[in-house]
Request: fold
Amino acid sequence: MSEQQNETQSETVYRVVLNDEEQYSIWWADRDLPAGWRAEGTEGTREECLAKITELWTDLRPASLRRRMSAGSAA
Reply:
């Protein structure tokens, strides 16, 4: 990666976003969110946002699968 790309990337502000399946990603803070995604509340550098996702997203299974598995084990 060139120095200019590195500098531009470090100046870019991102936000942590998630969808209805509680899957996380990052998105540019200055752009409208894509359909189906909402802001989690964290904004910062790419590295800060990815660190927050690592902290929050401990179970990578989609929410619908977790609910089905919980319902199946409760029966």
Remarks:
- The first helix runs from residue 3 to 11.
- The longest strand covers residues 37-44.
